[in-house]
Amino acid sequence: MGNEKETLREEIERRRREIEELTRKEKGQDRERGTSFSEQPKMQAPELWPDPPEEK
Fold first, then answer.
1. SS3 36
2. Which three-class secondary structure state does DSSP give residue 55?
3. Which tens digit of pLDDT belongs to each residue from 1-56?
4. What are phi and psi of 15, to 5 degrees?
5. 1 DSSP 8-state letter
6. How far apart are CA 26 and CA 19, in angstroms?
7. Which of 9, 34, 46, 54 has the greatest number of CB atoms lying within 10 Å of its CB?
């Protein structure tokens, strides 16, 4: 069981490093384009629909 835990820890560390590396690459590409994620326009919620007219 101890060996399995060690193998899982190694796998987790390897994947964590891969994710960090990919994140750094993506941030580098954003800098090359001149816009960062925080500078991109944000989606806005649509305006609320007006109340329907009351039927008589």
1. coil
2. coil
3. 678 888 999 999 999 999 999 988 877 765 655 555 565 667 777 788 777 787 76
4. -65, -35
5. -
6. 11
7. 9
Q: Which residue has the tokens 């941030």?
A: 27
Nearest to 14 by CA among 25, 24, 22: 22
pTM of the model: 0.44
Q: How far separated are the first and last CA of the chain, in Å rounded?
A: 74
Q: What is the largest CA-CA distance in the chain?
A: 76
**What token pair was written down for 53?**
């007219």
The 10 Å Cβ neighbour count of residue 11 is: 10
Amino acid identity, residue 6?
E
